[in-house]
Amino acid sequence: MDPSSSVPGSSLPRPLAPSLPSRPLTPVLRALRLCLHALLGGLIALAAVKAVADDAPHATAVVLAALTVAVVYAVGALSPAVDRSPRAAAGWLAALGLAWLILLALSPDGLWAAFPLYFLQLHLLPVRWGLTAVAATAAVAIAGFVLHGQTVTPGTFIGPLLGAAVAVATVLGYQALYRESERRRELIDELLAAREDLAAAERTAGTLAERERLAREIHDTLAQGLSSIQLLLRAAERALPAGDPAAAHVRQARETAQDNLAEARRFVRALTPPGLEHGSLAATLERLCAATPGPAVRFGVSGTPVRLPTPYEVALLRVAQSALANTVRHAAATRAEITLSFMETSVALDVVDDGTGFDPRAPRPRPGGGFGLPAMRSRARSLGGTLSVESAPGQGTAVAITLPLPSGDPA
Length: 411
Description:
Strands 1-2-3-5-4 form a 5-stranded mixed beta sheet. By secondary structure, it is an alpha+beta fold. It has helices at 27-53, 59-78, 80-84, 86-106, 114-124, 127-147, 154-239, 246-270, 281-291, 310-331, 373-382, and strands at residues 296-302, 335-342, 346-353, 386-391, 397-404. It starts with 26 loop residues before the first helix and ends in a 7-residue tail after the last strand.
């Protein structure tokens, strides 16, 4: 029987049940199934051969009863319905039990066929009904042996009862091992899936980091350089006397620099993180809070929002993401809050949680890299800002980044 099929009323396998499997069995389970077939066939054959050899009064009836048990067993072993339907399995067990009772009524040697029946009952029936059927089978086997007038010895009672105990211990022990094996398999599947997700996340993070780096480099070098060239050419154009032949060339150079500056800015916008492409920084941070698993995260805005340059928005978003990631992974927090504050000359982002906290002055290993506190500080310094961390063991953590607003931007 298919080792993956479930016992009625439970999620346990039935590898010893005799029907053909719907998928290949492992060598161990195939050997167990063949042993069960051989055990039952050998025991009923022994009863028939012994009845003929001893010239028992009902030897022919015993042989016919043994053949009936064999035929009923073979029908169930070859029937797919027994594997698929709990009702069919119970009906087959009832028919097999009735045929065995006839054999037991005719020959005391039918007692020994009870042992393979124990395994079938335990595997094909729910645990409660299987134990009940095993107990009833053992009692009937002992009673049948006694009613045949055989010599009653301690082994008459101990043999069937010991066999039932061995069967119960074997089956329940196997089921416990199977459950443990399934849990380990599920854990391995989860670990493999997590590893694949982690690899994909690392690839995505690497791509985004490279996009951000390129955007920052274009903004800080190429765009700033073109802007300076444009200003210098504008000044040169004003300084030239009217009608100077060089004025046209200076104007053309200034317009070219202006066009290339607009193109550089388009590159920067194209390299903006996806979360900022279709909404403001505040809306992106609000979505980040709503999508963060674990602690309840609240978002708030203070002051009058102003349009920030793309590098500023990227820096604030990445610091918020990194701080929230640390909160989820390490802080064991129940609540967190992100506040975006617009002031007259600066913009600030605060991430506060009620987690376990830590000592910011203690050295902390950073295996694997990623956005840690040094990376956040570096990002803040690159824009002329500061990053502060306030925390203590058991008192939560507060991370704050403050960036000066670019000159000319209204507060």
